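Q: What residues go here?
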């Protein structure tokens, strides 16, 4: 059975993830918010001045949800109580995909920067690159069953770990 949830508070949703609270959380891109859906279908949107164009979302190792904020060139963190923290700065450039890694950190694709970024739960950012990532547009990312993070590369027609 398929149930379709719609409403004025859902506007161009992108990524979706299960939170530690048992609810589903989504990046509400045009709504400039992070949404929460209960299993009963109740939708709540969390807005914050720093949320602008969220794209992907994942459950973090700290029990919070982490999301890429493409328009804001930042990585966001939202607790299940709705408290938002925003991380900006060097090493975050057009973030798109995000996934929790087996190392206890969050990994993300820098679509504009053509790099793979890592952010610790404390907000420390590192970047990784390779010559084949130049103009490659790394895109989506997911945690693999092997403990690695896997990502797609738009202009190179490949999936990589």
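A:
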């Amino acid at each position: 059975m398929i149930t379709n949830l719609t409403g004025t508070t859902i506007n161009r949703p992108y990524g979706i993830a299960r939170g530690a609270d048992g609810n589903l959380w989504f990046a509400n891109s045009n709504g400039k918010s992070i949404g929460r859906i209960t299993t009963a279908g109740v939708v709540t949107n969390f807005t914050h001045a720093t949320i602008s164009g969220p794209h992907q979302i994942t459950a973090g190792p700290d029990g919070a949800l982490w999301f890429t904020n493409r328009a804001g060139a930042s990585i966001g963190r939202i607790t299940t109580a709705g408290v938002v923290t925003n991380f900006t700065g060097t090493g975050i450039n057009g973030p798109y995909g995000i996934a929790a890694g087996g190392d206890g950190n969050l990994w993300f694709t820098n679509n504009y920067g053509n790099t793979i970024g890592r952010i610790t739960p404390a907000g420390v950012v590192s970047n990784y690159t390779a010559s084949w990532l130049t103009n490659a547009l790394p895109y989506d990312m997911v945690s693999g069953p092997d403990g690695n993070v896997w990502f797609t590369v738009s202009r190179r027609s490949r999936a990589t770990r």
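A: Context that may help when evaluating the design: The mean pLDDT is 89. The first strand starts at residue 13 and ends at 18.
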